[in-house]
Amino acid sequence: MRYFNYLTADEEKALFYLPPNSFHNHSHKDILAHSVGAALYMPATRRTFAEDIAFGKIEGLVSVVLDLEDAVGDNEVHAAEESLIGQMNQIAHWMEVGIVSAENLPLIFIRVRSVNQLNYVLERLEEHVALLTGIVFPKFTVENGEDYFQVLENYNDEKSASAPILYGLPILESASIIYKESRTFTLLAINEIITNFKDLVLNIRIGATDFSSLFGLRRSQDRTIYDIAPIRDCVADIINMFGRMEASNVISGPVWEYFPTKGLLNEVMLDKENGLIGKTIIHPTHIKPVQTLYAVTHEEYTDAISILKNSHGDLGVMKSVYGNKMNEFKPHFNWAKRILLRSQVYGVLHEQQTFDGLLTGPNRAYV
């Protein structure tokens, strides 16, 4: 799988200075953490998700979350579980008979409701768990966090050597995190769990919808989550706790819940400015806008290369290749490393290309 695989060879050549690299669920953890990108949520009750995933019916789809939690009614849980197991088995069958190639599958995640359900799903899927990249843990708390990761650790200890590592993606969205008086203690305790199971944490996700509901708030479709003061305040503390370079965590941006994309584009830009990579989305039309904004510009790439190349030299600062800024080698070193990692997944645009060019392509209109 690779980003922007819907482009023709000529389009890709015209747009990219360095094209995106391919990846799969056996890829290195750092690559996978950045590859989650625009994660499209699908209810596990969706009858056609196996076909949508296996046969590329959603253009640009690179990562998908099959939801057993909020997208499924309480009276539909058993039906959703059966749908999930049956359709995952169908994908595995198509692969076994050569109809579907593993290289063309998106990254597949499952969002479960509880630790008990996680155990049940893993038991029912058996060897077909190897089709998955990770499990999304909703409402991740101090009380349930270690139990979730212990299940994952047990699975990974017992899986076959050829099966990929199964990762966890905790969602921070509980009241004890958003409420000011308990936030610091809760984040410190969660950080201890994250640190203890660091090798199994793919990325950390932020559940802004649940946060907002505790205050009776909802951002408008032309605004961003950063315009909601208590949510912005909490996101800042989450970044402060988990976004430090020594922690080397990847934090994903909150879900975008509207169909129009104007506010989405603004929010993704602000996500990036705050070091967040990845976005939970609820509609296929969101895939391309989100992915596009993660592509690395030629200016960013040349700055990053210059900084890393000169970071151990005699100079401490140098004018950028574009001549519009000063690059300080030590202060900008960590930023440069992140840019190069992102460039491997999303590619580097040609000097004359912008995000708008990638959205429309030289020969196609974005819809």
From TrEMBL:
Q: Does the keyword Iron-sulfur apply?
A: no
Output one GO MF annotation: lyase activity
Q: Which Pfam families match?
A: C-C_Bond_Lyase
The cofactors named for this UniProt entry are: Mg(2+)
InterPro entries tied to this protein: C-C_Bond_Lyase-like, Citrate_lyase_beta/mcl1/mcl2, Pyrv/PenolPyrv_kinase-like_dom, Pyrv_kinase-like_dom_sf
Q: Which UniProt keywords apply?
A: Lyase, Magnesium, Metal-binding
The answer to whether the entry has keyword Magnesium is yes
What is the protein's given name?
Citrate lyase subunit beta
Which source organism? Paenibacillus plantarum
